[in-house]
Batch of 2 targets.
Target 1
Amino acid sequence: MRQFFAIIGHPVSHSLSPLFQQAAFDEAGIEAAYLPFDIPPEALKQGLSALRTLNVSGFNITLPHKEIMIRETDRISETAREIGAVNTVISQRGDWIGDNTDGPGFLQALERFLEENHLPFPSRVLIFGAGGSARAVLWALARRRIGGVCLVNRTLTRARQLLEGPLPAMIPNRHPCALDDPSWKDWLRESPAPLLVNTLSLHAFPDGHPPFPPLADISLSGIPLFDLSYAAWGPDKKSFDGRTPFLRMGDPTKSPRQNGLGMLLCQGALAFELWTGKKAPVDRMEEVLRRATGQKSLWKSL
Ligand SMILES: NC(=O)c1ccc[n+]([C@@H]2O[C@H](COP(=O)([O-])OP(=O)(O)OC[C@H]3O[C@@H](n4cnc5c(N)ncnc54)[C@H](OP(=O)(O)O)[C@@H]3O)[C@@H](O)[C@H]2O)c1
């Protein structure tokens, strides 16, 4: 019987997951359909009930439902519990297991980007944003025993709360900071071998400008930039520029940089493996992503 998989979110029409997950099922010879469902928060209960009725085999969750899904599953994995969010549900004989592949996917993608560009693993990381994906990034960095992290967010209390959890406590140097507080620049100046990670959504970059003062007074030269966003579509919604507004900050100094397409691939491949128990056809999935976006490499600096 044909299996049924899905991605839920609001909005979800921009998602590239249906494209590369369907290609993965086809490549693996698994009879399955992977479909997007736009479900606003107020309709989440009804949407999930419909997925149960339709006997969904598994699904991905994107904004804004990842955190609430912790309470909507029958069991959760250790990773999902530690991150505090679910981005993948696996149905086992009707029981829903919530897992999170964002944290491991981020780590795999970051390591591959650093390796392909002959860069060392950073000793300290400055993260913009303190939302759901920042939790996954922190989880990954804590596991790699990073030496220090600075969390810069519009809402300072959110950054503080995030750094108070048991996992970040494993990171010796922790600095929460508001976007308009210049102390994060000092933290960056004092950091040997830092990395800048952006988890702010594209809404934070109106007209392409970052929501913080220009970084001109900090030499970005040699500091790698890694953005979780990838959807920098051109105004015609057809052309794709992989250099997101955050990555464009590195234009003058030619900093090594990469967008979130590699992480998208890695978290998606891990979800495929959780659903099917088979090795994901990663080359095929990557080929589909490269063709859809026109981006030549998901790993080499843009
Ligand atoms: N590549 C991948 O596989 C992957 C995986 C996961 C997520 N992502 C991307 O990561 C991004 C963030 O996702 P998320 O789940 O972390 O979202 P989220 O939980 O909604 O967090 C959004 C963050 O952006 C900030 N923000 C929003 N609008 C802002 C504005 N106008 N000015 C300043 N800050 C603003 C929020 O600050 P406040 O706390 O002050 O509201 C918060 O820190 C999205 O673009 C998503 O597509 C990519």
Note: The longest strand covers residues 3-9.
Target 2
Amino acid sequence: MNIRIGAHVSISGGVEKAVERQEEIGGNTGQIFAGSPRTWSVSEYEDDDGEKFQDSRDEHDQNPYVIHSTYLVNLATPKDELFQKSIDCLQAELDAAAQLGVEYVVFHPGAHTGSGRENGIERIAEGIDELDIPENVTLLLENTAGKGTTLGKSMGELREMIHEAETDSEKIGVCIDTCHAHAAGYELREKEGFQDFLQEIREDIGLEKVKVLHLNDSKDEKGSEKDNHQDIGCGEIGDKGFRNIVNAEEFEDLPMILETPSEERPGYKENLEKILELRE
Ligand SMILES: [Zn+2]
Ligand SMILES: [Zn+2]
């Protein structure tokens, strides 16, 4: 297996348990939460935790790793308190990543909740500039399904956020979620549509900016703006879409992370095997 593929795994019982869970699935890269995803709490890690985690990852050849930010973070919000809380939380996650030797922290840019697109994008850029991104960690903006006032559904919007920020652009990258792209209206199944999608990435953000892929199928039709993940091949993106995605040389070297649905049946192992099956 020369590709990097793994799953989002739980850290319950200690961060090194994530490596064991990944091993069971057969993954060689992975993603974790640094705390509890529906609360503001981010676990604090000691040097010892970091060393153990890294040793264990190296031993099992699981690299790189990603921390997914909590779902509460919203840098686009016009509300000062929520904005500040979001910055503090992301900072704690970035610090946890540095402590654990995790290469990437990915977050959903947020929703402007009525303040308007321009204001929302400006706010996101302002929030990014407040962060102190540690050395060896890259902050990734994830494309979104685009529901309601959520920002970041198009590559163009992600570009605006990155360009508005004054932070060294080397410290910022993008994570592409396939379910979100499909929900946002990108065509992933037809060869031509998929090529257009790649072209838009090239033109708007640059392929070198894409650091991680989230592989999720979608329960809903293209353009639905709904964020309902489905097992690989069982949804609207289907085998056809994933065949394009996992065989695109543009994505060849990227870590691919499965996030669907949980550690239940058909489960990550089957999803991972499905991806390997679609590889040509
Ligand atoms: Zn995702
Ligand atoms: Zn999603």
Note: Residues 142, 177, 214, 259 surround zinc ion (ligand 1) (CB under 6 Å).
